[in-house]
Amino acid sequence: MTAEEGVQPRKLSEGAREKIKLRATYVNGIANAFIVAAVLTIPLSMLSDMLHPASGVPFSALCLFVSLRPHWLAQGALDGLDR
């Protein structure tokens, strides 16, 4: 018998479940902010006379890439609610 076979998953209280949901929503909001920054970078750089439109592409790509991690963290937190 392995250690995991004899372990019962603990039941989460409703308060604990709500805290998980709130944290996941917050982290997902951070990811959404990175997506908005990525989407707005190129148009804002086009409006500015200082930057060439292509100068915003690396920053935009970086923001889109960075936004993936918080989304995955939020999804992982919500997967814990299946207990």
How would you describe what is shown here?
The chain crosses the membrane at residues 26-44. Keywords: Membrane, Transmembrane, Transmembrane helix. With 83 residues, the chain is an all-alpha fold. It has one domain (14-82). The chain has two helices and no strands. It has helices at 14-47, 57-79. The longest helix is centred in the middle third of the chain and has 34 residues, at 14-47. The mean pLDDT is 78.
What's the arrangement of secondary structure elements?
Blueprint: H1 14-47, H2 57-79
Helix pairs in contact: 1-2
Kindly state the number of beta strands. 0
Global mean pLDDT: 78
Categorize the overall geometry.
Answer: elongated
State the secondary-structure class: mainly alpha
Poorly predicted sequence stretches spanning 5 or more consecutive residues: none
Specify Rg, calculated over alpha carbons: 20 Å
Termini, distance in Å?
22 Å
How is the biggest beta sheet arranged? none
Helix content: 55-70%
Number of domains: 1
Name the helix and strand elements from N-terminus to C-terminus, one letter apiece.
HH
Secondary structure tally, helices: 2
* Strand content bin: under 5%
Task: Summarize this structure briefly.
Keywords: Membrane, Transmembrane, Transmembrane helix. The protein has one domain. The two termini are 22 Å apart.
Tags for this model:
2 helices; 0% strand; membrane; mainly alpha; elongated; 83 residues; single chain; transmembrane
